[in-house]
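Could you help me review a protein record that somebody else here produced? What it holds is a sequence and that sequence's fold in token form. I need someone to confirm that the token line plausibly describes how this chain folds. Take the sequence as given and treat only the tokens as open to question. This is what I was given:
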Amino acid sequence: MTSINFRMQEHLLTSTTHTEPEAASSPREIFTAISGLIVGMFVAVISGTVVSTSLPVIIADLGGTQSQYTWVITASLLATAVTTPIWGKLADLVDRKILIQISLILFTLGTVAAGFSTDTNMLIALRVVQGVGVGGLMSLVMIAVALIISPRERGKYMGVVGGIMALATIGGPLLGGFLTDAWGWRANFFVGVPFAILALVLLQFTLHLPKPHKAKVSIDYFGIVLLAVGVSTMLIWVSMGGSQFEWDSSTSIILAVIGSVAILGFIAVEFFVKEPIVPMSLFRNRTFTLSVLASIAIGVAMIATSVFLAQYFQLARGATPTESGLMTIPMIVGQMGASIIIGQLVSRFGKWKAWMVTGSVLATVGVTLMSTLRYDTPFPLVAVYMFVLGAGLGMVMQNLTLIVQNDTPPQQLGAASANVNFFRTIAGTIGVTIMGTILSSSVATYMADSLGGFTPSTPEEITALQQLGSGDVPKVGQLPEAIRVIVESAYGHGIADAFILAIPLAVLGVIAIAFIKNKPLSTKTAAEQLREQAEESVLELAEAEVGSSLDTGSIRVEARR
């Protein structure tokens, strides 16, 4: 009986240790394994950045308002935020490779369809589809990397990945501006299709990930509905309050109550469901909780900058889409340069705390400087502001996910990684919505004050004033000189006012990062940790069964005596 038990445990131990593929040992093997992930991320980044510089042109061409401009951004971010923890939870339950492929297909279909938009509402709807795909890519790629590469080595490889992402981030706005000026803005939505096809092929043949151990999938559908309803309702309330309805109106109160009840209901549900989207047990982990607080500050600064810089350059400085893309290079160089260099240093020395504190301080200084912008601020100064902010974000953004993965049990790796991204995206979405409301209100106030004593003297000026009165985003280059200066000044000042909101949040980020536990980075991958835990469980089971068999045998001997 005992020998049978030993053979059974030996077989179980062997099967357990070989169900997971060995971690890639050489740089070449690792880069081969993550090649599809890199191209997939490249598609997501370039498809977003290529459109960023042309958004003012797109909204003006489709007859959209400043509120709709904000919602074109917010719709995608909202879908990304709501679905990110769902993708992360699914990654702990079902095949991760299939999930990555599904998210990439969804993103590509949404992007191509957006190129055929006939009005702003259609574009907003298709941006939701894009956001669902991005939510999967952003969380699943980081989860897959964590399964293949240890935290200590991850910075080195992510530095190279960051360089490729830099190409997409820097080249995207330039390419988008060129395509918009040459063939129109719709061409921007089709440029990523060949890369998406290549990514799908590479993912199929090069990516091999361990399968989750849980056989039965339990999805928190009720939590998904409550989360989507709560966040969406609160965003609608924040973005439309004060313009579409008064803050103290019945509509405002109903929206606030529905959103609050749904969010509170979501929190309550997560305590009781079998597989919660946001496991509340994660918040017992100090590193996770403080990283979430820091990610809120970083999310607002990062997303706000990407949204409002294009408007600043095109509406406050009269730049073309191509020029706008060129003007954002200092920001991208700062962000990507810091991400690559600091990633290498973290991998080499295993120290991350000082770099992250420095980055959070730089981000705070950067958003403070951005709040001083005016339409006539010398561009060299604007470039310095952008570089400082970009460097701060580059030092902190990826490392927040890294330190959470380093201090999280591998069984909760998907949920923890995804939820850091979730809170960063949701905070950025809410922040951008509020900042967009501030911008819209400030621009209207500044233009009303400046145009109060203005008397039009030409038919062109009369027509321009009528167009401004419609609330649509103006085509600054077509405005008469006297009105153009007023509009540029209003947008420059309004965008600076919007950045004031990010300053206290950035300070919160500095404080949160300062109190994160300085835990050394592990040299084991998540897959190796899971394998070790499985082996330990099997050995403990074997010892327990052998002990039980011996006890039974001794009892039988005593009985015979």
